[in-house]
Amino acid sequence: QVQLVESGGGLVQAGNSLRLSCVASGRTLSGSAVGWFRQAPGKERDVVAAMSTGGIEYYSDSVKGRFTISRDNTKNTVYLQMNSLKSEDTAVYYCAVHSSFGAILGSRNHDWGQGTQVTVSS
Question: If we measure between CA atoms, which residue out of 93, 113, 92 comes closest to residue 41?
Fold first, then answer.
């Protein structure tokens, strides 16, 4: 079972940037698809960015052009660079790891870490 530790969240003003990190243990990322999800109060946990083992990237319409997912397999770490933050980006952010890119995109049934809170003030 993979263990995931997210970090890098915080309180920022709209228009600013944050970089989230997710360190994985118990599973190597080099052969895995990865994704970032977020969950706002009262809402579902939805994928906002994902990357396949081959480097194919997916972004939800709400973050496309502002967020960038990346990975460092040598550090077993996934990143989410978030620019031009908006108040609607406020949520707890989680990462996920799976052998299937399709499962990252289509399922909410993953091993989760504790998440990291991102709060954007307008």
Answer: 92
Q: Which pLDDT tens digit goes with each residue over 64-109?
A: 999 999 999 999 999 999 999 999 999 999 999 999 999 999 988 8
Q: Is 47 helix (H, G, I), strand (E, B) or coil?
A: strand
Q: Do 63 and 70 meet the contact criterion of CB atoms below 8 Å apart?
A: no
Buried b (16+ CB within 10 A) or exposed e, 82-115: beebeeebbbbbbbbbbeebeebeeeeebbbbeb
3 state DSSP class of 31: helix
What is the arrangement of strands in the sheet containing 10-13, beginning at the earlier edge strand? 10-13, 116-121, 91-98, 33-39, 46-51, 57-59
